[in-house]
Amino acid sequence: MIAAPATQPVTLEEAKLHLRVEHEVEDTLISGLIAAAVAEIDGRHGYLRRALVTQTWELTLSRFPAARRIVLPMPPLQSVESVKYYDGANNEQTFDADNYEVVGTDEQGFVALNIVSSWPATYDREKAVTVRFVAGYGAAASVPANIRQAILLRVGDLYINRGDMPSDPDANLAVKRLLAPSRRVVLA
C-alpha cells in the first residue's frame, strides 16, 4: 500500500453508539478494535480482498503481460495514476496514458491497451512494470451498509470477548453472512 485510507469505514461515534458506550474512558480501546476489525476484511489480504475507503496501491510485474490488459487487484477501482516501466536500457519510463484506457467496475478493474497500441519492451528485471492505482468506495459513508454493519458486529464481539475468551460463533457467522455478497473470490 502506498497511501492508507484517511479514515476508517466506521467512526468512533458509530461504534460507541452500537456498543452503547456513553463515556470516553475506552475511546482508545474502541478505536483500536475498529482498526482491528477493518484490518481483517480490508485490503489485498483481507477477507473481502477489496479496498474499502480510498487508498493508493501499486501492482508490480516482471514484464508486461502477453494479454492486452493488466487486471488490477482490489476493486472497486477509482483511477490509475501511472503505468511505469524500465525500458531496454534499464531506465524508468512512464507509459503514455493515451495508449490505454482504464476500466473499473465494482468487481474488477484493469488497464486495457487501445486498439492501435502495444506494450513496450522491458528490461529483464524484477518489478519492471509498476501500475499505481487508487481503489475503494470513496469516503467512509460510501462503503456499503452490509460491510459497515459487519465491522460494527465484529467490533462488538471484540469488545465483549477480550483476552482469552473465545469469540461468539453466532456473531462471527452473522459477520460472514453480511460480508458474503461483497467478498471477492479469486480463482487460481
UniProtKB/TrEMBL annotation:
UniProt cross-references to Pfam families, sorted A to Z: Phage_connect_1
| InterPro entries with a match to the protein in the record | Phage_CHP, Phage_gp6-like_head-tail, Phage_HK97_gp6-like
Q: What is this protein called?
A: Gene Transfer Agent (GTA) ORFG06
Q: Which organism is it from?
A: Hyphomicrobium sulfonivorans
The organism's lineage is:
Bacteria, Pseudomonadati, Pseudomonadota, Alphaproteobacteria, Hyphomicrobiales
